[in-house]
Amino acid sequence: MSGPSLMDSLFQRSLEDLIKGLRQQLIGEQAFISKALEEIRKEIKSTDLSIKSTALLKLSYLSSLHFHDMSFATFHALEVLSSPRFSHKKIAYHAISLSFHDSTPVLLLITNHLRKDLTSTNEFEVSLSLRCLSKIANVDLARDLTPEIFTLMSSNKLYVRKKAVAVVLRVFEKYPDSVRVCFKRLVENLDNSDPQILSAVIGVFCELACKDPRSYLPLAPEFYKILVDSKNNWVLIKVLKIFAKLAPLEPRLAKRVVEPICDHMRRTGAKSLLFECVRTVVTSLSEYDSAVRLAVGKVPEFLVDEDPNLKYLGLQVLSIVAQKHLWAVSQNKEAVIKSLSDADPNIKIESLRLVMAMVSECNVTEISRVLVNHALKSDPEFCNEILGSILSTCSRNVYEIIVDFDWYVSLLGEMSRIPHCHKGEEIENQLIDIGIRVKDVRLELVRVSRDLLIDPALLGNFFLHRVLCAASWASGEYVKFSRNPLELMEALLQPRTRLLPPSIRAIYIQSAFKVLVFCLHTYLMQRGSTFSSTSPDNLPSVVSASVSDESFDNLSVENGVDATVTHGQICTPAFITNESIVNLLNMVELALGPLVGSHDVEVQERARNVLGFVDLTKLKFLNYSVQEENDSEGKGVEASNIIELMHDAFSKELGPISLSAQGNVSLPDGLIVKENLGDLEMICCDIELPSSNSFSFGSPCEEKDGVSFSNLQIKEDSEQSNESTSLLAEHRKRHGLYYLPLGKSEISNDYPPANDPILQGNINGNAVDLVKITEESLVPKRKPSHAKPRPVVVKLDEVDEKPVALKKFESKDDSLSGAVRDILFGSEDMVPTSSQSNLSDKSSSKRKGKEKQHTAPHVESKENLVDDGNPSSRRRKYRSHGKERRHRSPRKKTAEEREGQKEKEKSSHRHGRHKSGQRAEEPLNVSAQAPVIPDFLL
Amino acid sequence: MGIRFILMVNKQGQTRLAQYYEWLTLEERRALEGEIVRKCLARNEQQCSFVEHRNYKIVYRRYASLFFLVGVDNDENELAILEFIHLLVETMDRHFGNVCELDIMFHLEKAHFMLEEMVMNGSIVETSKANILTPIQLMDKSS
């Protein structure tokens, strides 16, 4: 037997051989490894422990660095572990800590090995098993080995003791009840003067306190002592972390520690400690002005340093301070702006965040200017980062910080021209959004849109298409503000629009339609006023034209920009002569003619609509040119009527639509929604269902229209919401019987046009909305320094309301902290605590709910008491929770108390395992901790 | 848990040492190491040593051909971790004498041993070079 074994061990490849072989790579890495694995599988079954352990060592190596599964060897690792030789044990422990985890099947078999080694006289063996335990301990191991660890925590061998202390963290986590056994000893180690032990203990407490700081408040005096006395930076950093968690919970504690922390900040030469002090102050002690000033004073040391690490951290500290002390950022403005052009993208992004934090109503213009200039020079990624943050900051809370919307709209235009800009979609949304919400800005919006549309080069940029889409929509919708509609028309119909995707092209055509109608109408009006006396047949159209003109004028006066608008008004008609109209119509026919055969239905249909309209009206203008005013035929009148109607339809304003608007439509009587659904399905199969946010507007004027017209009419209105709406409209035309009659449109039309005073009448559900709007208009947010008042921004309810923050439950309150509290807060509190918690465990869910209701109000009242710092508060609190128990109905009380008694005996083991119980328990502990601290604080 | 993992990776992106303080499967580890290596090795000397990754940070430092990468929780002190890396390197340097990648490759187990002396449960427990190295030297002598 010894023969082959000897041979085996002679010829076994050692780990070194394996590594050398891997490096030579004669047969390729994968092939070599699989060959080695094959050998290992054989060797590991050997009865010779040295062969086995070498195989295990090699396997650990391959698993750790080459990701090869070693779960097949778990049992072999245990076998090696049982070897009496230390070198074998070491290999086995290494392998086990690499490969074992909670669900390893042989994990339970290891308990005895570990116990044996934990009680060994060889401190290295003890240390190996402690280290292993810190990695693989599960509930069972933690429970079974708690006594051994408890013993080791007071071992006189420091080497072992510090490891026992460190391992306790894992044991507590896995088996909270071990706290009852070990916690006291852990605290005792806190007083230990040996630096090794101290750093281990503080490490444990730092982790524990991060999870649930409140439980460790009573230990504040011990931590304080370390904070003042310790010279070890590692330990000090950890203690600072603990105080950063504790200080916000207990103002008196914060007051106490702020001075020592400042001392450290002044004295220390170590940047890491300095940084930790600064961070602690700005996160947890931000109410202490002098400390914050001192900390902020240290920030430049970081910011101006050559070391990018310090710079980054300095910026991070600033962004923490910025939430409460914005002045700190402004103080370091220069360095922050300079960091925008740093070599490191991380630093750039940090400084960008800071710059955005500085933005306010007064400086948004300058900062945006700086940033946009910077974006022009930056690499594409950071450029978009900048643009994105400008867009999101400026649009926050419905453009809260924007006062001058004209400026903002032109900024949007400028941003979209930046070569790397990929934010087209966001810009598109904002352009349209602002157009709808802010009346006063429309003139500028149309100007910006025109500049974008007219530039043929922009059509080639894919990322700009969405912006162009918004621009074309805006210039169509608000064409009345345009200085030169004919030029706009050319821009909308220019040949390069073929580069656009069909969906956007369709919007171009629709906008061209609106512009066309506007031009024709303006022309007619012009003529009408000239010839109204001579052609009485034209009368109706003239009347309505002048009416609409009048209302338009009112509107512009109201907006306070009448001067410029009238200017637009005056110059517009001057451009339009009969000849230019004819040219216009020819151009439309020329540009859209080929699109009638387009493959895209949207484009095709809209092109057809426009061409149909041109056909209807063209004759009139041709006639005009031939026979001027002698035209009194029916045909001409008809055409001008059509133009009139179209113009009315288009000039109806679109307001922003609340997402919940659909819900405000009341169900008409006699409508049975579910009827005939089977039929509907059959009809719908050829059409995609419209998305939920699209609906068709009705319009009062529709009723007097011809049927052929309603299609176009609806298309116009739906334009703004979604393309699919036009499909819906088409569908409506075909299958009218499934739709509500159009006469009902007043109901569905309660999405008010922007800032329309009439809206007060038909509002039912949007009361909040109304209040917002009136507030807006009554008390405009304006500073006296602004030359121009901030225009009204229409808001809708659901945009304004912040999402209600989800109620936070104290999820942190796990069984571990419960156990810790029990230990720290003396026995008198333990009695009610444990009984109560177990009560709720046992009681039915109904009773549990009841109990929570009872305790809930007490949480607040007690926390207030803790804060007032009254030394006698303790007694009062104790009484109050006695009262709480009295709240319960007597019948239940007796039952519960009986259970409580019964549970008390068992509680030491069962307690704390049940999360449901912990919630009820918490307030009691909160109340109980107050007395412990004052001794130290007063 | 302060430290989640410690990696040593060479310039080519090959892992030379991997120590995790939370259990990850082989696949998770492979993915994680791949992502981190791609992220960190692409950075240059002028850039800072901190990289945000998933929900934690990586603090890294390069020594000759070897990158030391430490994954830590977000509230960990970055500078302290940099000091820790330096301490680790100094310790290995003292033990191996002018430590290089090969030393770590061929004495992986020892490197692990040192790390385990320094870090337990993801928190740093020992920062004295002498204390870290004494047991190793004793063991070397006895075997």
UniProtKB/TrEMBL annotation, chain A:
Superkingdom of the source species: Eukaryota
Extent of Basic residues compositional bias: 873-892, 907-917
Region Disordered: start-end pairs: 827-938
Keyword vocabulary terms for this entry: Golgi apparatus, Membrane, Protein transport, Repeat, Transport
Cell compartment(s), UniProt: Endomembrane system; Golgi apparatus
Claim: Transport is one of the keywords in the record: yes
Domain Clathrin/coatomer adaptor adaptin-like N-terminal: 29-616
Biased composition (Basic and acidic residues): 852-865, 893-906
GO cellular component: AP-3 adaptor complex; endosome membrane; Golgi apparatus
BP GO terms, sorted: Golgi to vacuole transport; protein targeting to vacuole
Subunit field text: Adaptor protein complex 3 (AP-3) is a heterotetramer.
Family label: Belongs to the adaptor complexes large subunit family.
Function: Part of the AP-3 complex, an adaptor-related complex which seems to be clathrin-associated. The complex is associated with the Golgi region as well as more peripheral structures. It facilitates the budding of vesicles from the Golgi membrane and may be directly involved in trafficking to the vacuole. It also function in maintaining the identity of lytic vacuoles and in regulating the transition between storage and lytic vacuoles.
Protein name: AP-3 complex subunit delta
Species for this entry: Durio zibethinus (Durian)
Source taxonomy: Eukaryota, Viridiplantae, Streptophyta, Embryophyta, Tracheophyta
TrEMBL record, chain B:
Record domain AP complex mu/sigma subunit: where: 3-141
InterPro entries (alphabetical): AP_complex_ssu (IPR016635), AP_mu_sigma_su (IPR022775), Longin-like_dom_sf (IPR011012)
Cross-referenced Gene3D superfamilies: 3.30.450.60
Pfam assignment, any one: Clat_adaptor_s
Subcellular location: Endomembrane system
Main location class: membrane
Keyword terms of this UniProt record: Membrane, Protein transport, Transport
Gene Ontology CC annotation, any one: cytoplasm
Record flagged with keyword Membrane: yes
Gene Ontology biological process terms from the UniProt entry: intracellular protein transport
Transmembrane segments: none
Protein family according to the UniProt entry: Belongs to the adaptor complexes small subunit family.
Name of the protein in question: AP complex subunit sigma
Organism name: Durio zibethinus
Gene name of this polypeptide: LOC111299143
